[in-house]
Amino acid sequence: MMPGSGTDSTKPWIAGGPAVILVEPQLGANIGSAARAMGNFGLSRLRIVNPREGWPNENARVFSAGADRVLEQAELFPDLRAALVDIKYAIAATARERGMAKPVFGADAAAQAAGRHLAAGADVALVFGRERTGLYTEEVSLCDAILTLPVNPAFASLNLATCVAVVGYEWFKAASAGALPFAAADKSPLADKQDLFAFFDHLEGALEDAGFFRSPEKRPSTTRNIRNIFHRLGLTRQDLATLHGAITSLVEGREGRDARKAQHNAAAAARRAKKAGGGTSDAPGDTPGE
């Protein structure tokens, strides 16, 4: 896809990170949406435990919105124990307090803990439960830590893919040190005072010609107010060039602009004609045969 859609196939695909385990997901659409979120945030290792609609699933492919490789590499397991067999550190996502003596992380702290264990050579998994009931207490007990999010306590149940996206965002932010994909474009240098004063002269002259200053007594204060407006903006050289052009266009109007353009074109045509005739001469002795 082209970059305009937010997807650029010319750039390398970032992969790795902790495994994401979806326990008995009910809908293929949610699996696909979770895979899409994983692709967004550089998570590529999807494990699916006993999906209700079976596997592979066409709805998952459709809702992955192009994150097909995450689905193609997904591993299928009969239960959570099997999915965790080679995992050294597992973090279980739950909205409910389980009364277990385990570390409780928010998404940011969970991402940092996952990064530390991975850096030490221990494989890590983020475990997410069913859409309707979440993880069972027995399943949470198989994990080393708990992940929960600060949400509305009266409406704490998140969509499965949304939860994966929130945690994936924190993972990628931590892994990339918060680097953004692009920065603000370089601004033109700030205008110096000489340029700014020349702009004030241009503007105030145009306003004078247009009859803006109707009261001689108020003109000094009005002029100061106008100048202060532009002082507050921190104008660049490019800003001043644009404003100069705008004032000139307003003063000239369409007829003036057309006349200036015609004059410019005529001068350019004259220069071209002079250049084209520069190789000939009427001077004596230049005529062939003399």
TrEMBL record:
Keywords: Cytoplasm, Methyltransferase, S-adenosyl-L-methionine, Transferase, tRNA processing. Its main location: cytoplasm. The keyword NAD does not apply. It is found in: Cytoplasm. InterPro entries: Alpha/beta_knot_MTases (IPR029028), RNA_MeTrfase_TrmJ/LasT (IPR004384), SpoU_MeTrfase (IPR001537), tRNA_m1G_MTases_N (IPR029026). Residues 19-169 form the tRNA/rRNA methyltransferase SpoU type domain. Residues 254-290 are annotated as: Disordered. Gene3D superfamilies: 1.10.8.590, 3.40.1280.10. Catalyzes the formation of 2'O-methylated cytidine (Cm32) or 2'O-methylated uridine (Um32) at position 32 in tRNA. Homodimer. NCBIfam families: rRNA_methyl_1. This is tRNA (cytidine/uridine-2'-O-)-methyltransferase TrmJ. The lineage of its organism: Bacteria, Pseudomonadati, Pseudomonadota, Alphaproteobacteria, Hyphomicrobiales. The gene is trmJ.
